[in-house]
Amino acid sequence: MLVPLVLLLTTSVSAIKQEFGNYIEEYYNDYDDEYLDEIENRFFVLHAKKRFHEQLNKRDYDDGDDYFESNMTFNSRLAFFIDIEIGSNNDTVSVLVDTGSSDFWVAGYGICESEFYYENSTYDCYDYGYFDADNSSTFTSNNTELLLEYGDTTVAIGYFGQDDINISNITVNDVNFGIANFTNATSGIIGIGYETTESTYFFNTTGSYKYINFPEKLVEDGIINKASYSLYLDEYDNAEILFGAVDHEKYIGKLYQYPIVTMNSSDINEPITRIAITLNTISLSNDTEELIIGDGYIPAVLDSGTTIASFPESISEVLANLLNLTYDYDLDSYYAENCSEIEDIYFNFYFQGIQYTSPVVSYFADFFYENGDYLGCVSQISSSDDDFIILGDSFLRDMYMVIDLEDNMAALAYSNFTNSSISDIEVIIDEIPSGVNPSNNKTFGPDNFLFTYYDSEPVTKSYVPNLATASV
Ligand SMILES: *[C@@H]1O[C@H](CO)[C@@H](O)[C@H](O)[C@H]1NC(C)=O
Ligand SMILES: *[C@@H]1O[C@H](CO)[C@@H](O)[C@H](O)[C@H]1NC(C)=O
Ligand SMILES: *[C@@H]1O[C@H](CO)[C@@H](O)[C@H](O)[C@H]1NC(C)=O
Ligand SMILES: *[C@@H]1O[C@H](CO)[C@@H](O)[C@H](O)[C@H]1NC(C)=O
Ligand SMILES: *[C@@H]1O[C@H](CO)[C@@H](O)[C@H](O)[C@H]1NC(C)=O
Ligand SMILES: *[C@@H]1O[C@H](CO)[C@@H](O)[C@H](O)[C@H]1NC(C)=O
Ligand SMILES: *[C@@H]1O[C@H](CO)[C@@H](O)[C@H](O)[C@H]1NC(C)=O
Ligand SMILES: *[C@@H]1O[C@H](CO)[C@@H](O)[C@H](O)[C@H]1NC(C)=O
Ligand SMILES: *[C@@H]1O[C@H](CO)[C@@H](O)[C@H](O)[C@H]1NC(C)=O
Ligand SMILES: *[C@@H]1O[C@H](CO)[C@@H](O)[C@H](O)[C@H]1NC(C)=O
Ligand SMILES: *[C@@H]1O[C@H](CO)[C@@H](O)[C@H](O)[C@H]1NC(C)=O
Ligand SMILES: *[C@@H]1O[C@H](CO)[C@@H](O)[C@H](O)[C@H]1NC(C)=O
């Protein structure tokens, strides 16, 4: 409809939609208020607050005969939000921190007025706040349309403008952001990806242009040195995003760094659009064996705005075979008899030969029917037709991730989960501090682009890569 092109941005919040979409949700906030430490000049820490959604997913479906209806109950899942005050009245909004998109937008006052409140909007003004542009004396409108569409089909429509924002005691003047007067997304979003995926550039076929987005603005104003940040998605009480620096206390083992790659192997001149690194191998393992799902070269997008993950259809199918999952037509998903069956099984993701493990159970959730009957432990992994995978919070919550948007590098290490407030912060001036290059420097591109999915029969591969691991 309104959006002419839906390209790479499309999957960015698809899994969130599974989580939050149209569903009734409630959350409790047993966390500290978001606050900010300005430890020195040139970097700052934002403590993200976590919102646990105990939501019900109501699926209506008509199989031609009967009417089938079920409520879906997930375990508590999470997404990461920060609070931002906008404009001369310090209107407070809570926005989802998204490495998978590049626009910052919030709901406008109009959305929240019953007169204008679209009947199908799922935006919750009470939970996430809104910005009243008309009553902010510092606001200037660009009179440019905001037209955003995400992969889950949710949209945000409105206009762009600039205003001052406060993040705790830091003020950033004249930040570009969108004010939505229609959305069916659940919350506003602060996209901290590349300017090449800004909606004004990506979606606008005539007269497209880039504008200075939030990470670049922090550099322009001298708040940080380099468009870079570190994400620590601790589930319990310490989640934070550190702009412009690395905190060496927050990870264990080596901080391996990987070149960010283009999404298309054949076009060497294609600009980098998404935070994606080279994945060589995906496997499943337990104490006794490792089963290869696929190997070769495929981009893996590291997306904090996706709650679970998205895999190409072939991976989902191999996975279902290896784990002996059952397909449920009503849900259009695979499930295990119960979650304890997959408790001791891990995904292994090898990036340029370096192994990271992630519990398979983090990608599944218990499913109960409305009447309380239990179906099983249902896969929350989206299947796609894409030639890339998306790893969301299910993977990232165990990792410390450093992104350097200027030199196109992403570093990953296992998180050091600690309640300690000790920090060992090093500003990013040039390279990622303590970033280690893996010995395998072959990245996804014109020479390395094939990825082989293994056949559906569960077979233990005699070849198990003997590779360095990122663990201590
Ligand atoms: C900003 O906040 C930090 C941490 O709360 C505090 O140490 C610092 O003094 C504050 N700065 C100002 C100017 O208030
Ligand atoms: C908005 O917040 C800033 C910084 O915290 C403060 O200086 C200012 O007085 C606040 N304005 C209003 C209207 O509350
Ligand atoms: C809301 O959804 C219903 C059913 O899909 C549709 O008929 C109606 O036009 C929608 N309303 C708006 C304002 O989009
Ligand atoms: C959101 O709204 C757009 C535009 O009306 C519509 O095409 C899309 O299907 C809606 N998505 C959801 C999940 O409601
Ligand atoms: C929403 O914003 C657009 C762009 O400024 C405008 O054309 C439209 O009339 C607005 N709609 C409402 C309901 O305010
Ligand atoms: C697209 O570009 C034209 C010309 O620069 C501009 O008028 C229009 O507002 C832009 N639309 C979006 C969605 O940025
Ligand atoms: C808004 O206008 C300002 C001033 O012309 C410009 O610098 C900025 O890039 C524009 N922002 C957007 C999102 O169009
Ligand atoms: C992990 O955190 C603890 C507590 O702050 C600290 O003592 C330890 O040195 C950290 N580990 C690493 C490898 O930084
Ligand atoms: C896990 O280990 C057992 C042997 O203890 C083996 O029979 C089983 O197939 C393994 N499963 C997976 C998925 O690795
Ligand atoms: C696979 O699952 C089916 C149905 O749940 C079960 O009957 C069968 O024994 C399982 N096979 C293996 C190898 O676990
Ligand atoms: C489904 O969940 C909703 C929200 O809790 C509840 O109101 C409704 O009664 C449930 N439906 C059934 C059939 O249990
Ligand atoms: C990759 O490693 C090989 C062998 O160490 C080296 O010869 C080559 O220059 C490296 N390539 C790049 C792009 O760093």
Written account of the structure:
The protein is mainly beta. Helices cover 8% and strands 41% of the residues. Strands 1-2-14-13-28-29-16-31 form an eight-stranded mixed sheet, with no helix packed on it. Strands 17, 18, 19, 22, 23, 26, 27 and 32 form an eight-stranded mixed sheet that branches. A hairpin with a 4-residue loop joins strand 28 and strand 29 (409-415). Residues 1-41, 50-77 and 456-472 have low confidence and may be disordered.
The number of helical segments is: 7
Mean pLDDT: 78
Widest beta sheet: strand line-up: 1-2-14-13-28-29-16-31
| Number of DSSP strand runs | 32
Small molecules (ligands, ions, cofactors) in the structure = 2-acetamido-2-deoxy-beta-D-glucopyranose
Q: Helical residue percent? A: under 10%
Which structural class do you get from the secondary structure elements? mainly beta
Please summarize the sheet with the most strands: 8 strands, mixed
Radius of gyration: 22 Å
**What's the overall geometry?**
globular
Distance between the termini: 51 Å
% residues in beta strands: 35-45%
Low-confidence stretches: 1-41, 50-77, 456-472
List keywords for this structure.
472 residues; mainly beta; eight-stranded mixed β-sheet; 7 helices; binds 2-acetamido-2-deoxy-beta-D-glucopyranose
